[in-house]
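Methods — Computational structure assignment.
A single polypeptide chain was analysed. Its primary sequence is given first, followed by the predicted tertiary structure written as structure tokens.
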Amino acid sequence: MNERKRRAFIGASTAGIGRAIAESLSASGVDIIINGRNENKNLAVAESISAQTGNRVEIWTGDVTSSECVIELADSVGEIDILIANTPGPTPNFNDSDRKQALLDAFERNMVSVSLLIEALLPSMERNRFGRIISILSTSAIRPIQGLEASAAARSGLIAALRSQAKQYAPYNITINHVLPGPIETERTKAFINESEASLSASTPIDLNNSNLARSIPARRLGKPSEVAALCTFLSSELAGFITAQQISVDGGLTI
């Protein structure tokens, strides 16, 4: 992309969708900051991506689901042009006895911490007259999944909470959008399919794209992390400056 060097922070970016986004942004010429809780893993991923793309890759080790940590992050990483607000997936299947705590935890992890981080980074984006904020959510935000009610509530709440900021900061060339992946080929999805369909397959390895989950999708397959990353890279660019306050599903037609 023909634009000046930008700097991006990608949350939870040592594996899965987060890593694919980091690789794609770096390949597009953006300097990136890798994030995860394990410093050795962060360093290994950063070295790998930098070797592939030849671009600058930094790391920030910490928990992006903690309000205290995100305030520290905003103070320590300097100016960020592109924020990919990606947080680890939710804990499923809460029951009546822990419903209140599950809701509180989900809102802290998926709404409060993200909102605080965005609030901390917006002033520098406003000064620079450029900002791209993309929250990585889930189709569960608009199509609830049994067992993930707390996460769905927090994520749909984040969409609502950021609408006013998207309107407020649009005059400063700052956009705020939400990407909602459906079932994507990640280790987490593989584990879910293997666990839920193990009794059907006995000892035979499960073909992900022939699983019940894949067959429930109109495209008849799972998505690839690179497909989510391609959308995020576009939304991070100058070309997407007229797109804001949108929620875009990457789900092969699952939410039609």
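Note: The first strand starts at residue 7 and ends at 10.
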